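pasting for ref
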Amino acid sequence: MPYHRGVQFVSDEDDDDDEGTVIYSRISSSASLRSRLMVTKACEPKTITTTPGLLGAGETETESEDQPLRQLPTARIVNSSGPLIPPTTLQQRLTPLLFSFSRWLSIVPAFLGTLYNIFCAIFPPQQSAGHRIDFIVSVLWAILTGYQCLALTTGLLRRWRVYYTPLPTLIRLLALQAICWPATQITLSVLDARRRPAICWAVIATTTCCSRAVQLWVTSNIVGGKEDPDRLSLRRWGGRRWDWNAVAWSCVFPAGVLYFIWAWTLALRREFDSC
């Protein structure tokens, strides 16, 4: 059988008529073409790379979860006369007001629910199956809901201020309210707040406490400055971690106290109704 030696093919087979060894030689044209392609490819610049300083650097880079996003430079107003004018103080004064207004919007459903339950506790609806004591307990659950909603929104605002510029932060605050308000209304409608007000608001408050616990974990890598607590930054060590002491006192303890009060009010109501 023929075998390859360099660029020649040599046949070892001998013919009976002693014609000799037949040698076939061939120069491969594909070898030179392959070498030219490899040289051309090596000389071409990379269009996508993650090496800083090279062409296309940064196109495939992604921000890590615990790294703050790069802040965009502050926009400047160009005057017709030529010099650059820094932004006015109106934006600096308006931004905190918008943040505070959007943050306090989180308590609107709980605030309206508190007023409604107080009114029903004083003037029980005739068509309602709930007892007066149920509306009083619902007031407590609604107050806890408002407190946890405000704390949840405040904690997320601290995180968003580190990661995003003011406009995306404001959009996220409003989007959070756009989710929480309908969720509260759907819960009250599905569980029928007129018949079982205490159950509805207990479910809402308990769910909010769970969300608050998750928020404590999400924002556990956000720390404030020693001299200026409002200057927020990322923790340089450890990342996120569960602070079970904070979860217990901020979420479990207040909900547990209300469950204890609710259980005793139901027991006392049955005793007085049976008398």
